[in-house]
Amino acid sequence: MSNPPSAEINFRAQNQLSELFTALDSGTGREVRRMLSTLSPQSIAQLLESSPPRIRHVLWNLIDKEIEGEVLQELSYDVQSQILATMDTEEMVAVMEGLDADDVADILQQLPERLMAEVLSSMSETDRERVESVLAYDEETAGGLMDTDTISVRPNLTLDVVLRYLRRHEQLPESTDSLFVVNRQGQYIGLLPLSRLLTTDPSVTVREIMSTDLEPIPADMPDTEVARLFAKYDWITAPVIDEQNRLVGRITIDDVVDVIREDADHSLMSLAGLDEEEDTFATVRRTAPRRAVWLGINLLTALLASWVINLFQDTIDKVVALAVLMPIVASMGGVAGSQTLTVVIRGMALGQIGRSNLNWLLSRELGSAVLNAMLWAVVIGVIAGLWFDDTRIAVIILVAMVINLITAALAGAILPVALRAMRIDPALAGGVALTTVTDVVGFMSFLGLATLYYG
Amino acid sequence: MSNPPSAEINFRAQNQLSELFTALDSGTGREVRRMLSTLSPQSIAQLLESSPPRIRHVLWNLIDKEIEGEVLQELSYDVQSQILATMDTEEMVAVMEGLDADDVADILQQLPERLMAEVLSSMSETDRERVESVLAYDEETAGGLMDTDTISVRPNLTLDVVLRYLRRHEQLPESTDSLFVVNRQGQYIGLLPLSRLLTTDPSVTVREIMSTDLEPIPADMPDTEVARLFAKYDWITAPVIDEQNRLVGRITIDDVVDVIREDADHSLMSLAGLDEEEDTFATVRRTAPRRAVWLGINLLTALLASWVINLFQDTIDKVVALAVLMPIVASMGGVAGSQTLTVVIRGMALGQIGRSNLNWLLSRELGSAVLNAMLWAVVIGVIAGLWFDDTRIAVIILVAMVINLITAALAGAILPVALRAMRIDPALAGGVALTTVTDVVGFMSFLGLATLYYG
């Protein structure tokens, strides 16, 4: 279990932000520029993410040119494209100089096709080739995630030769913890961890100590599966190969951490009809239309519920207490269903749920729903009976509650699986679909039973 | 943007699971044992997580004794403690042999105090000391996350000496990418990346090339902040120090990835009143009571809404169409509010939201809410007017909708910040608090206006 995000944790970042806003208010950019120059690119990116758009653009222009690229690559896609929109081709090329090929590719993919081609053609030839080799793969695959600056060695070399070869480098690529072993055709055959290189007798050959346990990652593997492999096996870097088994790049844990965060965010944001890349400080102009669509979809659900209620107008007209109590049945169904839905959606995201255990899960949810239905249906039955001094209404709400809580559990468990089978994202559509079911069944059972009794 | 969890991604794991279940059904444990012996501890842990409790225990008993410990440490807390509950002290000690101190500490903390002491006292003295040094820190701090197997060197050594010193090791601790530089008092003074060690002339001293940029992590830093630092600066390992600046351990990225996943899960699960460590396949006996509490809390909210409706019984009695339409206003408020709530809760979890930008965020939400309120209030007004052939009801629902959507935006933005200030977890309490507000204001405004018009 982890702490809820607490006040202290954000203290430092929020303090920087306050100081910065004060400095910006006081007018001169010089003080702000001085403050920014003491911060790391990552901290500056965090400040930009935490700033409203207008301040964001002012800040961006005060950043030291030399670290603009590093700051840019740390930003989320939404914020990146806002900032890119203010640059011309030349500025973009300058900003991206010195970044890793995968990061440049990520940034370029935020741009319109035509502009991307323009920026690419203005790059130096080696840079362009490296970036294009990454761009050849879909952004959401291992190929789109990988970097191309690998260090590879042949299996027949002695460690002594490898050590001398490494010493000829000014420095090794960031996060290098292993060298890759390839054959004459450039095909991946094994891994040589730096730590093993350092603890083994230098006269031994690479082949004798290389590790062949780790299966290399095919370039077309989806990034979410790459993330799962990294999390599962505690990798720091992993080799990426093409269809001919040739080493084409490597993926490092820092890029994977971003995928893990996005994946985890995906369910949370989607359940509220939001995009996981949504900029917290997007303008009204960007926010309002996105929200409007979601509200429209939910209005249809609400109208459907109203249509159900409308069927029972006469009964409500006779017993107005029904109108008072009916939202309880619908809302409890919604709450119970969303618990099941969340557990199932998370289980699916973790790769835990499939045909073989779905039945067990269904019966568990059913069992839990029956117990809770009995408990809370009796409680609400007693409350309603006493409140309106009417045993009939007590029985009606009791039975309706049992029906809706059991329906909610079944819907919460089945809907996400069914939606996935239809290739619809359960996290996005599951909540709306569930509410529709629990509202309709809730109103229908409660008012329908009432019509039978009072009609 | 990342792919939604798709069928293919889980294909391999789900296939293993089906095969395993079939083998279990066929009766003999031998086939299952053979299958398990081909899998990594991580894959076995995934299978256990994906199995209902009874199968889980059968599987556990078929695992090769030698990897039990590795499997155990990969499991989530909920599942870990279920399995630990079936062991005696001796078995526990045997299982934990060979695990890292931080992993042993994590597992021990699942046990009752008395049992933990028993297991500790049955361990070898060196093992016990290492584990106790981790146990001295709170589980949710850097100290609780760290491992104690660091390799440290003195600053005045030449690299040549360091290389010879390393070669005397059988192997380096897992995920070692840097050595730590300490002074005579054991105080941390810098970092020596292996990659730099490999690319520098061996006659140079450690002091000349060590890196001092990275600020060491105090042992009492909360784990969520540690995770944020790792994600921000792309660290693989980082040194942990005590109050006297002495190096006490190191944190590696694999432990941090778990914290990042839990943190990200926290908001999703809490919004549905669930624990982020919840076992997907918990039994009914464990699930039902946890869910019951949440349903009870939400019943109070629903009853409050009913009480509000009850105030307007006479008006509903006069115009039954009000009963038909009233859920629309409440439910649209709930949907709009939960969008704002989710954006703010995520922004807070990312450390983006504080006093300095809250006002901007509030006005953005307000602006967006006003625009959407105007759009959808008119739409629903027109629909209601045509449906019941009544312009009064059109105006009433239009105005009520505007009021509730604006209230929802304000509540969605202010509630989480207010809850955090009161040290209540916004992810857990935010949803219920929000629904209470949007239900009460929704019914109150719609029925209140109707009473003014028709009364």
From TrEMBL, chains A, B:
<feature type="transmembrane region" description="Helical">
    <location>
        <begin position="366"/>
        <end position="387"/>
    </location>
</feature>
<feature type="transmembrane region" description="Helical">
    <location>
        <begin position="427"/>
        <end position="454"/>
    </location>
</feature>
<keyword id="KW-0472">Membrane</keyword>
<dbReference type="GO" id="GO:0046872">
    <property type="term" value="F:metal ion binding"/>
</dbReference>
<feature type="transmembrane region" description="Helical">
    <location>
        <begin position="319"/>
        <end position="345"/>
    </location>
</feature>
<feature type="domain" description="CBS">
    <location>
        <begin position="210"/>
        <end position="268"/>
    </location>
</feature>
<comment type="similarity">
    <text>Belongs to the SLC41A transporter family.</text>
</comment>
<keyword id="KW-0479">Metal-binding</keyword>
<keyword id="KW-0129">CBS domain</keyword>
<keyword id="KW-1133">Transmembrane helix</keyword>
<dbReference type="Pfam" id="PF00571">
    <property type="entry name" value="CBS"/>
</dbReference>
<protein>
    <recommendedName>
        <fullName>Magnesium transporter MgtE</fullName>
    </recommendedName>
</protein>
<dbReference type="GO" id="GO:0005886">
    <property type="term" value="C:plasma membrane"/>
</dbReference>
<dbReference type="InterPro" id="IPR038076">
    <property type="entry name" value="MgtE_N_sf"/>
</dbReference>
<comment type="function">
    <text>Acts as a magnesium transporter.</text>
</comment>
<dbReference type="InterPro" id="IPR006668">
    <property type="entry name" value="Mg_transptr_MgtE_intracell_dom"/>
</dbReference>
<dbReference type="Pfam" id="PF01769">
    <property type="entry name" value="MgtE"/>
</dbReference>
<dbReference type="InterPro" id="IPR036739">
    <property type="entry name" value="SLC41_membr_dom_sf"/>
</dbReference>
<feature type="transmembrane region" description="Helical">
    <location>
        <begin position="393"/>
        <end position="415"/>
    </location>
</feature>
<dbReference type="InterPro" id="IPR006669">
    <property type="entry name" value="MgtE_transporter"/>
</dbReference>
<dbReference type="Pfam" id="PF03448">
    <property type="entry name" value="MgtE_N"/>
</dbReference>
<keyword id="KW-0812">Transmembrane</keyword>
<keyword id="KW-0813">Transport</keyword>
<keyword id="KW-1003">Cell membrane</keyword>
<dbReference type="GO" id="GO:0015095">
    <property type="term" value="F:magnesium ion transmembrane transporter activity"/>
</dbReference>
<feature type="transmembrane region" description="Helical">
    <location>
        <begin position="292"/>
        <end position="313"/>
    </location>
</feature>
<keyword id="KW-0460">Magnesium</keyword>
<feature type="domain" description="CBS">
    <location>
        <begin position="146"/>
        <end position="209"/>
    </location>
</feature>
<dbReference type="InterPro" id="IPR006667">
    <property type="entry name" value="SLC41_membr_dom"/>
</dbReference>
<comment type="subunit">
    <text>Homodimer.</text>
</comment>
<dbReference type="InterPro" id="IPR000644">
    <property type="entry name" value="CBS_dom"/>
</dbReference>
<dbReference type="InterPro" id="IPR046342">
    <property type="entry name" value="CBS_dom_sf"/>
</dbReference>
